[in-house]
Structure formats: structure tokens, C-alpha cells
């Protein structure tokens, strides 16, 4: 499969897309017998199943005690200035790892500018956020704690909070042994990364198909998989997460309207300040996509079929037929894996030294 390795944008992408458009025209005419062996082989060249074991993380040992600490931190609203919002407020463990809001609600009921992506399988993305501005989950975890529209806290105040809670001092000592001062903002981020590395969703029906169980997908879903590759979706949505690996303009061929692509969010341009990165975003990972509506960084599209149709026009310059849309969407629904069963932790109790919550109506900087 040559499309798998196409360059980010420009000539190579245009060629690949033109090539795929040709394939699509060929495919549209024929609803002939599916060659399932061939489909299986092509799919395995393009995608990878989610592993059943927790992956290793660069520069961070995913030990039991780190994961346990990370789980407490993930659910602890005391990481936020208001002490009302935890990571789980916007990345709900029971809702596919996101919040099903158009854009998330943070400190003081402020609405952030972007839709919350799922944290499930995020460990497999090459970089974090819609614009890839954090290189990994460790760097990422420091963002929301400080973002004024999210948890609105400061590293100093977080450290003060955690150091005031004996149960946390113990847990950090266990997770980061032989350090003089283990209770740090950095180690908080590492523990959150370790916990999130465990949030993987193996054994989707699609993965079962990749592993050789042809019956895991019905005929419509198989045709959807074929269409997904034939029309060129997999040029950008490939690999283990069917996305999350590379950056492309949202609107390679035709920019969506400003309700779906608000013109003030220029995506990766804000990170690189390079003109060619205007409206460039990370190809969204598509695992568990049926659970994580609404769609796109603007969170403006609730219907998965509509999202597929928009992609056809915006990225491929193609009005997909109703049949193609139904088949591709049926395929996308097979990407739902086993959801992590996360036990809600009992959080260690605070002391008189623990800072008090900053009321929502107060700007947190004043404390
Ligand atoms: C107020 C809601 C909110 C809270 C609280 C929040 N997040 Fe997020 N999270 C978001 C939004 C919105 C984004 C996307 C922002 C962007 O791309 O610019 C995001 C992005 C992420 C991502 C990137 C996923 C990907 O595929 O790119 C991860 C991982 C993540 N958050 C983890 C966390 C952790 C860990 C915490 C707690 C320390 C947390 N979040 C707290 C809303 C929130
Ligand atoms: C040229 C690269 C490219 C191609 C081709 C492409 N996509 Fe995308 N896709 C993206 C990017 C980039 C985004 C993120 C858009 C944004 O900023 O919201 C995305 C987002 C999506 C989303 C929304 C995911 C979410 O979590 O909100 C879906 C669904 C999707 N694509 C499906 C498809 C399908 C189906 C096709 C084929 C018809 C396709 N894509 C073709 C790059 C591509």
C-alpha cells in the first residue's frame, strides 16, 4: 500500500489523492464479490491492532505504583483551582474518554475553544492535542492543569496541595523511589502519563478481523473497510489509531464552512507560525469514534455519517454516495474496543494546610 507513507502535504499528497479518486471511480461501478483474503492482507499493511498489553512509554516506567498514583490524580478535583474539576470531568472514563460536549466547560463555566479528544489510546498518537503541540502525554498533562479555561491552577499551588496531603506524599514516594522530593509537578505529569498508558481499548471487531477472524465483520462493514481504503481515507487515517500520526490541512481540497472550521482557530499555525500550517490539524484518531461525538476540533458535527461526508468533500474533493457513506460509517463503528474498567479511587484526605478552593466567579490568578 503506497498511500500509507505519503508525505504530509503538497505534491505527494495531491498525487496520492488523485490516485485514490481514480480507484474510487473504479470501485463505485462494481459491487462484485469481495475478495476477503485480499482485503485482509491490504488492511494488515495499512492498520495495526491495539495491543492487548500496556505499551512501554519513553522515559517513564509504567509501574504499578505509578499507575495507581496516576489514577488518583486523574480523578482528583483538587488539581484544579476550584477543586471542582478533575481530568475525568472532561475525559470521562464511562463515556469513551471524552465529555460529549461541543467544546469543554472549565473554570468559571468558561467554554474552551476546542472539543475534548478521547484519552483512550492517546498513548499511540505521535503527539498530543488537535494541533500536536505537546510531544507526549507527560508534556500534555501539564497543560490542562494550568489552562485558564480548564483547571486554572499553577504548578506551585498544585505542589502545595499535594504536599499537604500525607496520603499523596506516601504514594509519590512509592511511585518515585529514592528521590529527595518526589512530590513535584513533573512527577504528577509522569504518573498521569503512566495511568493514561493503561487506557487502551483492544479487541474491537475490526482488530479481530485484522487478526484473522473474517466473521468479525459483516459484509457491509467489510465493504466499508474496502471503501475507506479505496477512496483514500486511509491515506491519512492509518496505523494503530487510524490517525494521530500526521498533520494535514482541514480542507485539503475544499475548506468546510466556518461553522465546522471556525476561521479564528488556525490549528498548527499557532504552534509553528509557518504559513503552510494554516488550518492544519492532526488527522484525528478514529478508534471508538462512535462513542466520541460531537466531531471535529470545533465539535460542531454530531452525526458520524455527516462527518464522513464532510471528510469526503473537504479532504478528497468527492461527494461520497449514500451507499459509500453508510458502508464507511458501519466500518467505523467496528472500531469500538473493550472499554477500560477503571475503578474510582478513594482519594487521600486533606489537612488544614491544603489550599481552599478558588470560587468559580473568581479569577484564579488572584490567589
Ligand atoms: C475543562 C476540560 C478539560 C479538563 C479538566 C482536562 N482536559 Fe484534557 N483536553 C481537553 C480539551 C478541550 C483538549 C483538546 C485541546 C486542544 O487540542 O487544544 C484536551 C486534550 C487532552 C489530551 C490530548 C489527547 C489527544 O489525542 O490529543 C489528553 C491526553 C488530555 N487532554 C488529558 C488530560 C488530563 C491528564 C487532564 C487532567 C490533568 C485533562 N486532560 C484535563 C479538555 C480538558
Ligand atoms: C488528507 C488527510 C485526510 C483524509 C484523506 C481524510 N481525513 Fe479524516 N481527518 C483529517 C484531519 C486533519 C481531521 C481533523 C479535522 C479537524 O480539525 O477537526 C480529520 C477528522 C476526521 C473525523 C473526525 C474525528 C473526530 O474525532 O472528530 C472523521 C470521522 C474522519 N476524519 C473520517 C474520515 C473519513 C471517513 C475519510 C475518507 C472519506 C477521511 N477522514 C479522510 C484528515 C484526513
Uncertain ranges: 1-11
Proportion of β residues? under 5%
Q: Which value, in Å, is the CA radius of gyration?
A: 22 Å
According to DSSP, the number of beta strands is: 2
Task: Give the CA-based shape.
Answer: globular
**Overall tally of structural domains:** 2
What number is the mean pLDDT?
91
Annotated CATH topology of the largest domain:
Cytochrome Bc1 Complex, Chain D, domain 2
Quickly name the level 1 CATH class of the largest domain. Mainly Alpha
Short description:
The chain contains 13 helices and 2 strands, in the order H-H-H-H-H-H-H-H-H-H-E-H-E-H-H. It is mainly alpha-helical.
Walk me through this protein's architecture.
47% of the residues are buried. This protein has a two-stranded antiparallel sheet. The protein is mainly alpha-helical. The chain contains 13 helices and 2 strands, in the order ααααααααααβαβαα. One heme C is lined by residues 130, 231-233, 235-237, 248, 250, 252, 281, 283-284, 286, 289, 292, 295-297, 307-308, 311-312, 315-316, 328.
Amino acid at each position: 500500500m503506497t498511500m500509507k507513507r505519503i508525505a504530509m502535504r503538497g505534491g505527494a499528497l495531491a498525487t496520492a489523492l488523485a490516485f485514490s479518486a481514480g480507484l474510487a471511480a473504479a470501485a463505485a461501478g462494481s459491487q462484485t464479490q469481495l475478495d476477503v483474503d485480499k482485503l485482509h492482507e491490504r488492511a494488515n499493511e495499512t492498520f495495526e491492532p491495539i495491543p492487548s498489553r500496556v505499551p512501554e512509554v519513553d522515559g517513564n516506567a509504567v509501574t504499578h505504583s505509578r499507575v495507581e498514583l496516576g489514577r488518583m490524580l486523574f480523578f482528583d478535583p483538587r488539581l484544579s483551582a476550584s477543586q471542582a474539576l478533575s481530568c475525568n470531568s472532561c475525559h470521562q472514563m464511562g463515556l469513551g474518554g471524552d465529555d460529549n460536549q461541543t467544546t469543554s466547560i472549565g473554570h468559571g463555566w468558561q467554554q474552551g475553544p476546542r472539543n475534548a479528544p478521547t484519552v483512550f489510546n492517546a498513548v499511540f498518537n505521535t503527539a498530543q492535542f488537535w494541533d500536536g503541540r505537546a510531544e507526549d502525554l507527560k508534556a500534555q498533562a501539564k497543560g490542562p492543569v494550568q489552562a485558564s479555561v480548564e483547571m486554572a491552577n499553577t504548578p506551585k499551588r498544585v505542589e502545595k496541595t499535594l504536599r499537604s496531603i500525607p496520603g499523596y506524599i506516601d504514594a509519590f514516594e512509592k511511585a518515585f523511589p529514592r528521590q529527595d522530593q518526589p512530590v513535584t509537578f513533573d512527577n504528577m505529569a509522569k504518573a498521569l502519563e503512566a495511568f493514561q498508558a493503561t487506557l487502551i481499548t483492544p479487541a474491537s471487531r475490526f482488530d479481530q478481523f485484522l487478526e484473522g477472524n473474517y466473521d468479525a465483520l459483516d459484509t457491509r462493514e467489510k465493504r466499508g473497510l474496502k471503501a475507506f481504503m479505496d477512496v483514500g481515507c486511509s491515506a491519512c487515517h492509518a496505523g494503530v489509531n487510524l490517525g494521530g500520526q500526521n498533520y494535514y490541512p482541514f480542507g485539503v481540497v475544499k475548506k468546510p464552512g466556518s461553522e465546522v472550521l471556525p476561521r479564528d482557530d488556525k490549528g498548527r499555525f499557532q504552534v509553528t507560525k509557518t504559513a503552510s500550517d494554516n488550518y492544519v490539524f492532526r488527522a484525528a484518531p478514529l478508534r471508538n469514534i462512535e462513542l466520541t461525538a460531537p466531531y471535529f476540533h470545533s465539535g460542531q458535527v454530531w452525526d458520524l455519517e455527516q462527518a464522513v461526508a464532510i471528510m469526503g468533500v473537504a479532504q478528497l474533493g468527492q461527494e461520497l454516495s449514500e451507499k459509500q457513506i453508510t458502508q464507511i460509517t458501519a466500518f467505523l463503528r467496528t472500531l469500538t474496543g473493550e472499554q477500560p474498567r477503571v475503578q474510582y479511587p478513594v482519594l487521600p484526605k486533606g489537612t488544614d494546610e491544603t489550599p481552599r478552593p478558588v470560587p468559580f466567579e473568581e479569577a484564579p490568578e488572584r490567589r
